[in-house]
Amino acid sequence: MFAKRILDLAISIPLLILLIPLWVLIFIWIKADSPGPAVFCQSRVGVKGTIFTIYKFRTMVKNADLVMKEKIELLKKNGEFDPATFIFQEKDDPRITNSGRFLRKTSLDELPQLLNIINGTMSIVGPRPEVPEITEQYTQEQCVRLDMPPGVTGLAQVNGRSELTLSQTLEYDIEYVKKWNFWLDIKILFKTVKVVFSGKAAY
Question: Domain for residue 163, yes or no?
Answer without folding.
Answer: yes
